[in-house]
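Preliminary data (for renewal application), fructose -6-phosphate complex.
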Amino acid sequence: MEVIIAEGERLAELAADAVEDLLRRKPDAAIGLATGSSPLAVYDELARRHQESGLSFERARGFLLDEYVGLPADHPERYRNVIAAEVGDRVGWPETQISGPDGLADDIAEACAAYERSIAEAGGIDLQLLGIGTDGHIGFNEPGSSLASRTRLKSLTLQTRQDNARFFGDDVDAVPVHCLTQGLGTISAAGHLVLLATGRHKAEAVHQLVEGPVSALWPATIMQFHPHATVLVDEAAASRLQLAGYYRHAYAAKPDWQGL
Ligand code: F6R
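Predicted structure:
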């Protein structure tokens, strides 16, 4: 696992570099898309590169990390709509090439299985963008999630619903209780995991993710098993890392040819 400590704008550039390098190498790559605040600066940077240097998503496939259950199709916080507004529409990504688990399906179990099939049919996800919850979730795999889980229904913790109430007019009751999320096993199957975290409120979760024992109590710790995981954090989110000095040293000494 590589930990890079830098200021927010630089983190977004690094994540965008990883996406751009992938698309230049493999124009029809499959990219896993997180919502929430953490990837917003990355999406801004990708939109800028699309405008200014023609970075193309025309052949790329997009796979949402998760989705709320039961939000009406036109609800602005439905993740499918959020991703269209934050990234898809801004980079000319054909709508039909971005999929997500169907939070309005009558048969939720079949919708989750169908989503897993669509990822497999695309040849798997090449690069998965991730944020981390203050309780250590990735996707919406809350504490206690199976470390081998696949896309399924989960109940959000009160903590996560409170954290996300800011997107629902600060009304925690308006945040759905249920979601569909790629499982920890699904996420682990992606070729490259790129996680972004900023702010002191993420410091404990980041410490556990990088340095804690692997445990369902901190679901993001599953990333310690991944052969290619990049953790991009600002100073505040890095403030509890025990080995911060070593991560800084290793990154400063990194050979250019290695890339992310
Ligand atoms: C979003 C998602 C979540 C968020 C996490 C952090 O698709 O899967 O895991 O990444 O809750 O949210 P922010 O970035 O808003 O702090």
